[in-house]
Amino acid sequence: MIRAAWLVVMVAVAACPAWTMAAPGDATREALQQRAEAGDAQAQVELGRALETDGVPADKVASTGWYRKAAMAGNAKGAWQLGFATMAGVGTPRDVPAGLEWLRKSVTISQNADDMATLSVVLEIDGNAQQEAMQWAQKAADKGAPKGMEVMGMARLSGHWGLPKDPALAEKLLTEAARKGDANTQLVLGQLYLNGAFGRKDPVAGMRWLQVAADSGNAKAAGLLGYFLITGKEGVPVDAARGVTLARKSMAGNGMEGHYAMGVAYVTGTGVAENPAEGWYQISLAQRMDSQKELGSAGDYLARAAAKLTPSQLTELKGRVDADAAKLPAAPAGS
């Protein structure tokens, strides 16, 4: 469980977007172009973002060129964008070490704590500078960045980076990050309480934090909460109606856990009328979305549903799953 939670944290922090800017209209683009050509580093970054996101492949090179101009002028945002573009090979040859160096320059200039946490995870994923990754995470945590606290909390819980395991400190760091409003930390904290990762199970605290995350719009949290309320697992009192409502909320946000919880509800007839076909479909679709192979009990529920279906029904359902799985959004990098 701790390893899985660590992976969730890594993916979530690495997926945090860089500085975002609204796409300019034509008139604004022309004004940006003039300012950028006059040496305005901020305009160069904004123009680079506009070119990067306009859907025209040929503009990628120009986009990265503007980031480079801003970065060379000492602009932190320009260096940040250039770093990721260079690591990904967008508009320039792919060069991970050079990209990382630009990210380092950016956070050195900006001292942005959230970016320090992101840099920590990027270095962790790269795998060639583990000590430095830990140092950036610690700096981010010391500055009060929720993502930094989350990373350091999970490191203290798992003993990552050779740090002594300290569940009490891990709980403190994660709780502080969750209280600052970080929905992913709220999700992780809820799971850890339910699974007893701090040395004790606390279903009340676990469900409370999952609910807070779900209320913040976290589809995974809503789906997990729905699953526990439907099944009564981990000592959670069954509340089928609320569980089904949360499962559907998760599904609306494309949450794999929501599809799974709803499938379980249909297979078992909990909170909804029993419907083996719909249950089999929802669970099978959830399996297609399960890049981390988290649905360990899916096979049991599928077998239970399949026992009540004919071969022709199963064939039809498989075709439906294939068709709908092809429409699913691509999983985030690293998931």
Task: Describe, in plain words, how this protein is organized in 3D.
Keywords: Signal. InterPro entries: Sel1-like, Sel1_AlgK, TPR-like_helical_dom_sf. This protein has 335 residues and is mainly alpha-helical. Among the domains are: 8-105, Serine Threonine Protein Phosphatase 5, Tetratricopeptide repeat (Alpha Horseshoe); 218-335, Alpha Horseshoe (Serine Threonine Protein Phosphatase 5, Tetratricopeptide repeat), CATH 1.25.40. It is 70% helix and 0% strand. It is built from 18 helices and no strands. The protein has helices at 2-14, 26-37, 41-52, 59-72, 76-88, 96-110, 113-126, 130-142, 146-158, 167-179, 183-195, 203-215, 219-231, 240-252, 256-268, 276-289, 298-306, 311-325. The two termini are 16 Å apart.
In short:
It comes from Dyella telluris. The chain has 335 residues and is mainly α. Among the domains are: 8-105, Serine Threonine Protein Phosphatase 5, Tetratricopeptide repeat, CATH 1.25.40; 218-335, Serine Threonine Protein Phosphatase 5, Tetratricopeptide repeat (Alpha Horseshoe).
